[in-house]
Amino acid sequence: MFSRCNKLVSSQSTAQKSVWSCLRSLIKNDYATEATFESKPFKLHRLDSGPSTKSTITSDEAIEMYKQTQMIRRIETAAGNLYKEKIIRGFCHLYSGQEAVAVGMKSVMRPQDSAISAYRVHGWTYLMGVSALGVLAELTGRKSGCCRGKGGSMHMYATNFYGGNGIVGAQVPLGAGVAFANKYTENGGVCFALYGDGASNQGQVFEVYNMAKLWNLPVIFVCENNGYGMGTSTERSSASPNFYTRGDYIPGIWVDGMDILAVREATRFGIEYCTSGKGPLVMEAATYRYSGHSMSDPGTSYRTREEIQEVRQTRDPITSFKEKIINAGLVSADLLKKIDVEVKAEVDAAVKIAKSEAEIGLDELANDIYSNDLEKEIRSTTPFLFYKHNNSSGKTPINL
Amino acid sequence: MAVVIFGFKIIRKLAEDTFILNGHHIWHRKSFSSFKSLWAKQMTVRDALNSALDEELKRDERVFLIGEEVALYNGAYKVSKGLLDKYGSKRLVDTPISEQGFAGIAVGAALNGLRPICEFMTWNFSMQAIDQIINSAAKTFYMSGGMLGAPIVFRGPNGASAGVAAQHSQCYAAWYSHCPGLKVLSPYNCEDCRGLLKAAIRDPDPVVFLEHELQYSVTYPVSDQALSEDFVLEIGKAYIERHGKHVTLAAHAKEVQTCLDAAKELAGQGIECEVINLRSLRPLDMETICKSVAKTNNLITVEGGWPQCGIGSEISARIMESESFFLLDSPVIRVTGVDVPMPYAKNLETIVQPKPLNIITVVKKILGVRGKVSSISL
C-alpha cells in the first residue's frame, strides 16, 4: 500500500489542486508515505530565525496524530455528556478546539521531555500515556481513574506529566522547577509549562520568567491563548495581548495553535533551542475553545454563537488536518473513517465502565496523605472513629 | 457527667494542693543531660543548623539549598555560612526576591526527583508562597493517588523577633500544622536542630521546619552522639526536657526555654513541673502528653503564637476528646502570645510574648497555690 515514497509539497491554499494532480499519477490505492505541508508564518520575538514553515510527516505519523486529536475530541464530548448526566461532578474544563496544541507538541516530544498544565488537562493526560478509561474514570471518580478518583478533572498525573493544577498560574513555577531538575541532573529533558492567556497575568509567571532566564532553564513557557480567561477576553484582561513577547528578555514564538503541524515545528525548534543551552522560550499558541470555560459556563454571554460557529467551520484543528492529509494522499478517507469508528468504540466502552464501575472503598479515604506516614491514625469527623493510613496498592511513587 | 467528674477532680486537686502547701518538698530529680552538658560540646543553634545542612548536602547529591541570600551572602542569618565555598553554586542557589516563584520551582524540582531545601528569609515571607506550600507540595501525593510525592523541606526563621513590628514577628506553627500532607517541626535547642533538620531532609514528604529567630545565637550543649553524621531524631516524637509530677508544661521552640526557666523557679517552691519539648507539631505526640498528664493531672500549653486555633488549642481539644480528660484535676490552660499584632514600642512588645512569670502565675492558679500574682501576667 505504501510502496512508493512520494514527497508532496502543498500549501494550505493550493493543497487540493496540487495534491489531486499528484494523485492522478499514482496507481489506484497507492498512497504517499510522506508529505510536506506549509504552515502560516510564525511571529518571532528576539529571534533571528524561527521554526520551519514546512513540515514533513509520514503517513504513520499522520494517522497517529489524527487518532490522538479524534480521541481527545471524543473524550471531551463524552465528558461533557457525563457532566450533563450529573455523573461527573464539580469542575470539568473541556479542551475541544485546542487539540492541535497538545497533539502537535507531543508529536515531537522525546522520552526525557515533560509537561505540566493547568486544569484543562484531560487531553494532555491521555497523550502522556493514560488510557481513555483512566481519564474518564478519573472524571467520574471511579476505581480505574488514573488517580483512583482522588484527583478528579483538574488533578491527573502520569510519568513525565506533572498535572493538572487547579490554581491559576501555579503550575508555571512548578514547570520551571521540573526544568531546574532536568538541568541539575543533566538528563537533557525539556519541560513544557502550559498556561492560558488568563494565567499569563499572574505575578508568579513573571517571577519565573526571570529565574528561568537567569539560570537558563530548559523550559518552554507555552501560553495557550484561547482568547478568553474565563469570561474575560484578552483585550479586556491584558495590556499586551502579544503573549509571545511577554517574556521581554526571553525570546518568543507565535504559532497558529489550530495547526498541528505548525505547533509541531515550533516545538521541534523549541526543543533544539533549549537543549542547546540557550535557556527558556515563550511560545504563544493562538487557539480557541469551543465550550465555555467550564461546564457551568455556557460560553455565550461574552462571545457570540456566530464567532464559535465561524471558528468551527474555518479553523477547526481536526477538520483542517484531516483535509490536509487526505488531499496529500497520506491516508484514505476510508482509513480515517475506520479510525473514527475505533476511537468511538474505545471511548464508548470506557464511558460504560466509567459510569458503572465502583468508587474506591471508604477504607482508602485516608490513604496517601504521606509517603511515609507517621500519624498513628487519621481522625474522622468525630474523635470516636479513626481511619488507617495506607499507601495505595503498595506502589512506589514515580519520583521517590 | 463531665461536670460531675470534674467536680470530683477539683476536690482531688485541692487535696493535692494542700499536700504541696504543707511543705512536702519533693526531691527534684536533676536532669541527667544537664550533668552531661558540663562535658558536652557547646554550639550555637546557627552552627547546629549549618552542620546539619553541610552533612546532608555531602550525603545526598540531590539535596540543594535554594532561597534569597543563601549562597554568596552566606544566608541572611548566616545559617548557610561557608556552604557555597564547599558545594558551589549548583547546590546553593541564590534567588531573586520572588517567594512564590522559587517556592514553586523548588516544589517542581522535588516532583522531578531532587531533594530541595527551600529557605524563606523569614517565615513571614512564606505568605507570598503559601499556595505553593499547601496546594502544590502538601496535596500532590494525595491528589495523585500516591503516584507523585513532594520531598521538600521549607525552612527559615519563625516566631517573634525583636523590634521588627507586626509584619516580621509572628509564629506560623498553627498555620502550617493545620494542613494534612505537611509535617511540621519546631526545634528548640541544638540537638533538636541537628536531629530534626537531618530527619526532615531525608523524609520523603514535605516538611515545614520552623527555626526560632531569637534562638540562632543561643548556645546549647551537644552530645557526641548528636554530633554524629548519622544522628537523626524521629519525627513525631516529643521529648521530656524535665521530669516532674505536679503539672505538665507542653511547649515548642523558644517557649521550651521559658518553661524550663519557670520550672526552675517553681522547683524552689516545691512545685515540680514536667516540661515537654513538642519538637514535632504535625504529627503531634499526644502519647507523650497524655502519659505526662496521667502522672501530673494538670496541663498547661505554652506557645509564642496567637491563642485562637493555636497549638495549645489543638492540644486542649485532643485532651478533651481523650481519656486524659478524666485524669485532669484542672482545666487545660493555654499560655500564648497576646492576641494582638506585634507592636513596635518596646514596652508593649515586652509583654506580648509568654514569660516565665506568666507560666508561674498560671501554675500557681491551677494548683491553688496562693502567692503574689502580677496583674499583668493574666
Automatic annotation (TrEMBL), chain A:
**An individual GO BP term:** pyruvate decarboxylation to acetyl-CoA
Known catalytic reactions: N(6)-[(R)-lipoyl]-L-lysyl-[protein] + pyruvate + H(+) = N(6)-[(R)-S(8)-acetyldihydrolipoyl]-L-lysyl-[protein] + CO2
Q: What is its EC number?
A: 1.2.4.1
Broad class of enzyme this protein falls into: oxidoreductase
Start and end residues of each Dehydrogenase E1 component domain: 68-358
**Entry keyword set:** Oxidoreductase, Pyruvate, Thiamine pyrophosphate, Transit peptide
Q: Could you confirm whether the keyword rRNA-binding appears in this record?
A: no
Stored Pfam families = E1_dh
Cross-referenced InterPro entries, in alphabetical order? DH_E1, PDH_E1_Alpha_Subunit, Pyrv_DH_E1_asu_subgrp-y, THDP-binding
Question: According to its UniProt record, which cofactors does this protein need?
Answer: thiamine diphosphate
Which GO molecular function entries does the Swiss-Prot or TrEMBL record give?
Answer: pyruvate dehydrogenase (acetyl-transferring) activity
Protein role: The pyruvate dehydrogenase complex catalyzes the overall conversion of pyruvate to acetyl-CoA and CO(2).
PANTHER family, per the entry:
PYRUVATE DEHYDROGENASE E1 COMPONENT SUBUNIT ALPHA, PYRUVATE DEHYDROGENASE E1 COMPONENT, ALPHA SUBUNIT BACTERIAL AND ORGANELLAR
What name does UniProt use for this protein? Pyruvate dehydrogenase E1 component subunit alpha
Q: Which organism is it from?
A: Laodelphax striatellus
TrEMBL record, chain B:
Check the record and name the CDD domains matching this protein: TPP_PYR_E1-PDHc-beta_like (cd07036)
- Keywords in alphabetical order, please: Metal-binding, Mitochondrion, Oxidoreductase, Potassium, Pyruvate, Thiamine pyrophosphate, Transit peptide
According to the record, the segments passing through the membrane are none
Q: Where in the cell is it found?
A: Mitochondrion
Entry-linked SUPFAM superfamilies: Thiamin diphosphate-binding fold (THDP-binding), TK C-terminal domain-like
| A Pfam family | Transket_pyr
Main localization of the protein described in the UniProt heading: mitochondrion
Extract the GO molecular function terms from the UniProt entry: metal ion binding; pyruvate dehydrogenase (acetyl-transferring) activity
Q: Which GO terms describe its cellular component?
A: mitochondrion
Task: Read off the SMART domains from this record.
Answer: Transket_pyr
Its needed co-factors are: thiamine diphosphate
Physiological role? The pyruvate dehydrogenase complex catalyzes the overall conversion of pyruvate to acetyl-CoA and CO2.
Task: Kindly provide the name given to this protein in its UniProt entry.
Answer: Pyruvate dehydrogenase E1 component subunit beta
**Source organism (scientific name):** Laodelphax striatellus
* Record lineage: Eukaryota, Metazoa, Ecdysozoa, Arthropoda, Hexapoda
